[in-house]
Amino acid sequence: MPLGTLDRNPPPFFRQGYSAFSKLAFFSALAVFLMVADTRFRLAVPLRAGIAVVLNPIERTLRVPVEIWNGGAGYLQGLKQAQAAEDAARRQLAAQAERAARAEQLAAENNRLRALLDLRPALQVKSVSAEVLYEAPDPYSRKVVIDRGAVHGVVRGAPVVNEAGVLGQVTRTYPLASEVSLLIDKDAAIPVLNSRTQQRSAAFGTSDAGMELRFIAGNADVQVGDLLMTSGVDGVYPPGLPVAKVSAVDRRADSGFARIQLVPTANADSVRHVLVLEPIGLQMPKPAEAPASAASAAKGAAARKPGRKAAEGGAP
């Protein structure tokens, strides 16, 4: 290889240029000059505007992940707030539904009370309004306890009615409460009158919380839908109060009596306010007694008659 072809320049590592201090001084002076020129003559404004135009798409592209992050955080926060608002709305709706149900219940109770107030003038007997406290805890009977007792004038045997008809009869009294046996109790019985045929009979409670007519001939004139009312012949219930309706008539060929099932007009499961009536027997006038003075005078007259006869016989 010829010697003229050899590169005699030193490698870049060993090249010597301007010193570092010279470069620092030059670029520092250039920076000061550009700052002064930009401040006084606005030389870098067009350059800055051009660079901003070129870098704007790049800035927008770089801001996409940041906007996605912020938007996702805002979405999650908004979703959480929406769920909280939905929960609050559901609770408010439940409260409003409860208030609406309570309002409907109060309206129904108001209608029943109005019906009881309308019923009171129609009854020609004394009555005491009462409220049902609870159902007696006896699984073998149907009884309820009311909040009126002996101190309020309630007596055993008093009829209990509501606006729909007869519910039952007071069978036990306490000073401040009373126990009422319902008509659907298996031991209950009430004399009734068929409003269509004027036929008297007796309705009894059954073991399945229903009612039936017993001892009715198989060919008796009883039809489904007949209304049975109190007859008043027992001296307890006022006449003309609704008791039950005939729901089924089974005329058995192998028996001389028909099986007649009834549906009470008063629903004992939903009753709350009732009227306790005074039994009719207590309102019957007592038989007049002769005054004690009249009785003693009669006895004295009877005692004087033999003495008068003796005196008349001994006279001359």
Task: Write up what this structure looks like.
By secondary structure, the protein is of the alpha+beta class. The chain has 2 domains: 30-122; 126-283, Thrombin, subunit H. 40% of the residues lie in helices and 23% in strands. It has 4 helices and 12 strands. The strands form 2 sheets. The protein has a 6-stranded antiparallel beta barrel with strand order 1-2-5-4-3-12. A 6-stranded antiparallel beta barrel has the order 6-7-8-11-10-9. The longest helix is centred in the N-terminal third of the chain and has 78 residues, at 45-122. It is rod-shaped. Mean pLDDT is 80; it is low at 289-294 and 305-316.
Keywords:
alpha+beta, Thrombin, subunit H, 6-stranded antiparallel β-barrel, 4 helices, 316 residues, 2 domains
Show the helix and strand layout:
Layout: H1 20-41, H2 45-122, E1 127-135, E2 143-146, E3 159-162, E4 165-173, E5 178-182, E6 189-194, E7 200-205, E8 211-213, E9 227-230, E10 242-251, E11 258-264, E12 273-277, H3 280-283, H4 292-314
Antiparallel strand pairs: 1-2, 1-12, 2-5, 3-4, 3-12, 4-5, 6-7, 6-9, 7-8, 8-11, 9-10, 10-11
